[in-house]
Amino acid sequence: MPECILRLLQCLRYRRDSSLVRYKSAHQDRRTDVLENIQTNQPKRILFVVTILGVGGAELQLVRLATELRARGWRVCVVSLVKFESMVPYAQRSIHQLEQQRIPVLSLDMKRGVPDLGAVFRLRSLIRSFRPDVVHCHMYHANILGRIARLFCRMPVLICTAHNYREASRRGGPTWHKELIYRATDILADYTTIICNAASNRYVRVGAVPRKKLRMIPNGIDTELFAPSKERRQRTRNALGIGSEFVWLAVARLVKAKDYPTLFGALEVLGRKDLVVLIAGTGPLEQELRDECCRRGLSGLVRFLGMREDTLDLYNAADAFVMSSQLEGLPLALLEAASVGLPAAVTDVGGNPEIVVDGVTGYVVPPRDSAQLAAALRQMMEAGPECREAMGHAARQHCQQHYGIAAVMSQWLALYSECLASCPRQSLGGADFGCRRRGRRENRISRLGTEVFSHQPAEVRSVGLPKSKTALGALVISLDFELFWGVRDRFALDQAERGRLLAARAGIPRLLDLFDEFSVHATWATVGLLFARSRQEAEAFWPLERPRYREARLDPYRERLGADEYEDPFHFAPSLIAQIAQRAGQEIASHSFSHYYCMEWGQTEADFAADLKSAVAIAANSGYTLRSYVFPRNEVNPAYLPALERAGIWAYRGNEPVGDKEAAPFSEQRRLDKRAGRLLDSYLDLHGHQTCAWPGRSLPAPILASRYLRSYHPVFCRFEPWLLQRIEKAMKHAAQRGEIFHLWWHPEDFASNYGQNLRVLRRVLEMFAGYRTRYGMVSLNMAEVASRVGVTTLQTSLESINESA
């Protein structure tokens, strides 16, 4: 009886919060109801605590992180320890950027250099008021204050980020006591993150943080914003009155750690007058450094520009970047310079060698060595323009691959999700921390719900499917990710097509953000050749048996490829695939190796098996296991299904069960009557809802397509309400009857009108969110659907795979 009362109380509370999805009878002794699945649509909350909102790399990185999370639907609040009046005037720009995104910025009103025990309790009050799911502290003093505050209030997750190779002292004194305090308070933090590998190794070596609680997540940079521009270059050089002189650029605060005297000494050793050194930044040593330039006779070469907001213009105006620091973390200015394509001469401190590959993207020299730095400057200036351009190209490519904002954001989101999943009891969108009795009750009911599914296979438990005969309705989304491989036989790779594909690539992160916002899972059926990092790697995985299509234009192996993804983003996409895979619920599946056509003349089952083998191998080479398959152009050939099972494929996308959409060679699919029938069925109910039942206990499992999501077209936009109504009725039918509504499209289709297409998709996902709350509908990718067929069949299939291997 007490268990029943507990569940009743839980049900009433979640109905009040609009968070309960559904309850279901499933207990083995048939005495009580248990919690089946709880879905919450409340956005997560995060509180950022920072020592001061200045103009350094740490503060700018916090602003970018907060802004990106706000765009993804999180509720964000930023708290500064120091009074706003104590901040430099330029810090108001950061505050304005945050407030423009409707992110509140608060202050604990601490005075710099003055301990204030009351700040702990002011922070506690803010935490109790905002009720964050995650508290994320940045820089030393904020990290320690956040840890102490955790002694006095509940925090589901506390993450601390250190931004330096080692903590600095304002007066240049010893800092060992800071590392000792880090070590003593480490137990109060869930994780400490660091921005470069060199700093990570040092923190572990000195015992400040144990390795198991330390994560390295680098600073992120918007590589699309920080891009080379010849127009900016010429305009800025003209504005600065610079002609043919070689321009070195340094962007940093004028403080001791940046060691500008070493740079001035290197300029003396260099002894050249055909150069200009631009120093952008301000700080307490500005007047002292100006005086030193005069004493050394460098006042004609070095220009102090002060604090600048047009750093992007300065990067483009420069020929190379220079950094003479004696202490760094992972300098944001160096990342921005690399993203713009500037080669660099830097000192071997902190994360500098991780950004600048010595001899490839620039030169790395020992710190505090003017002679070595002068040699690097001379070598850079004497290298020809072609050599420097090649270095800059490599620098930008390296930056895009390792420090792109999307990839870094994925790492932060993964860490937040991991911490929230492992904490004893999460604050679901700001739940009250103080009610211990209710916390124990929730944990108890949560454990009971877990016990119900503990006897099911892991794949089923992970998506919350019941073991009862009555299944939940499901939304399944699959996307045919092809880039140019899907249209190469129909269109030329001209300027218009290149622009369309680049727009499609740029829009995929926005599509992923929308999926994250609604907690939607999806299958990305990817052409195998997109996994390749280079032309050589693609050719290495070419199958030995290849189709001999009657129409030569269908042969993909005649396609001309660039050297790699940077040179040819239309045929290669490993970085984009990695971004997709890092998002929760996104499955990387197969769309064949070469966009293989299973119903065209000239190909055989042996050719298909060889193509499939290459698709599985190239994906495995990049760390992906393929479990689902989508036949290119929906040419589903039933004779080839056994080959899918032998390759370890669990599910494939079947065709909609109507005449206009049956599998057929592409020439037959393009017949006018069939195209007209498919078009009309998108807006008018010609063939019913086309939802499908859950697949049976066989592999590979057919998951029939229900609807193709047509992209926005100015001619048909007036019929958009009919399109949405058609989708809504079919989705509701699936939700009410426990069936599957399978929506599919090509992400490249959205390229022409991305904003309008995302608006339509948002309407569709809002419908799903309503049915999730009302009927308990779930979002699954194809592999998650296939996992419902049962452990026995899966194990049999896997054993046959191992035997054939």
Give a summary of the structure in a few sentences:
Helices cover 43% and strands 14% of the residues. By secondary structure, the chain is an alpha/beta fold.
Task: Walk me through what this model shows.
By secondary structure, this protein is an alpha/beta fold. 43% of the residues lie in helices and 14% in strands. The longest helix is centred in the middle third of the chain and has 23 residues, at 495-517. The two termini are 54 Å apart.
Write the layout of secondary structure elements.
Layout: H1 2-16, E1 20-24, E2 34-38, E3 45-50, H2 57-71, E4 75-82, H3 91-100, E5 105-110, H4 118-130, E6 134-138, H5 140-149, E7 158-162, H6 176-185, E8 191-194, H7 197-205, E9 214-216, H8 230-240, E10 246-251, H9 260-270, E11 275-280, H10 286-296, E12 302-306, H11 311-317, E13 320-323, H12 332-340, E14 344-347, H13 352-355, E15 362-365, H14 370-382, H15 385-403, H16 405-422, H17 436-453, H18 458-463, E16 474-481, H19 495-517, E17 522-526, H20 535-540, H21 574-581, E18 586-590, H22 605-621, E19 628-629, H23 641-646, E20 651-654, H24 666-669, H25 672-683, E21 701-704, E22 707-708, H26 720-737, E23 740-745, H27 754-775, E24 778-780, H28 782-786, H29 791-804
Parallel strand pairs: 3-4, 3-6, 4-5, 6-7, 7-8, 8-9, 10-11, 10-13, 11-12, 13-14, 14-15, 16-17, 16-23, 16-24, 17-18, 19-20, 20-21, 22-23
Antiparallel strand pairs: 1-2
Any key phrases for this structure?
disordered N terminus; 805 residues; six-stranded parallel sheet; seven-stranded parallel sheet; disordered C terminus; alpha/beta; 43% helix
